[in-house]
Amino acid sequence: MSRIGKQKIAIPAGVTATIALEKGLQVVKIKGPLGELVRDFKPEIKLEIANGEISSTPTAESIFLRSLWGTYMAHIKNMIAGVTKGFKKVLIVEGIGFKVQLAGEKLTFSLGFSHTVEVKLPKGIKATVEKNVITLTSSDKELLGQFAEKIVSLKKPEPYKGKGIKYEGQVIKIKQGKKTVS
């Protein structure tokens, strides 16, 4: 049995949740003050809304469905947290000559290449840039994480000086450089 799947999720005030069957899938819509999120779930895990709570039960007994059970409830919990509080990721661009600028819906990076790198912000993500600190906010946790990793992958922090794009609080283990014999 899934410990996470068994728990009921309370729907806070100001948030509306609906579950509908479309094309053989359960479509969960969560609407709150920060937006609306929609996600499809397989019908093998039955989702229900009753008394201001979302509950789930598997329709059969298998290892695959037990793993889906907890995952689905975690997704719904993240959807509710996203439309009420939102999620935030902070990235730091570190290195001499490394810069980032926000122009409309595009982030423009100077990362030591012969050209600048432009990245368009996906719908649902807001960005602010102060010096070399990028703050990304969104109500969709999964989209935010994927986009933040896409930005980090442009120039991963290297292990000798720590130059590159990293998450706030990320510790880069710095290697010792070559030693010269004198």
Report mean pLDDT, rounded to a whole number.
Answer: 91
Quote the CATH topology of the largest domain. Outer Surface Protein A, domain 3
Main structural class: alpha+beta
User: Helix content range of the residues, please?
Assistant: 10-25%
- CATH superfamily of the largest domain, by name, is Ribosomal protein L6
Largest sheet: 4 strands, antiparallel
How many DSSP E strands? 13
State the distance separating the first and last CA atoms.
65 Å
Q: pLDDT below 50 for ≥5 consecutive residues: which ranges?
A: none
Q: With helices defined by DSSP (H or I, 4 residues minimum), what is the helix count?
A: 3
The CATH class of the largest domain is Alpha Beta
User: Which descriptor suits the 3D outline?
Assistant: elongated
Strand content: 35-45%
Order of helices and strands: HEEEEEEHEEEEEEHE
Please tell me the CATH architecture of the largest domain by its name.
Alpha-Beta Complex
Report Rg: 21 Å
Overall number of structural domains = 2
Strand order of the largest sheet: 11-12-7-13
Would you write up a description of this structure?
- With 182 residues, this protein is an alpha+beta fold.
- 21% of the residues lie in helices and 41% in strands.
- The chain has a four-stranded antiparallel sheet with strand order 11-12-7-13, covered by helices on one side.
- A hairpin with a 2-residue loop joins strand 5 and strand 6.
- The longest helix is centred in the middle third of the chain and has 22 residues.
- The protein is elongated and about 75 Å long.
- The N and C termini lie far apart (65 Å).
- The model has no long low-confidence stretch (mean pLDDT 91).
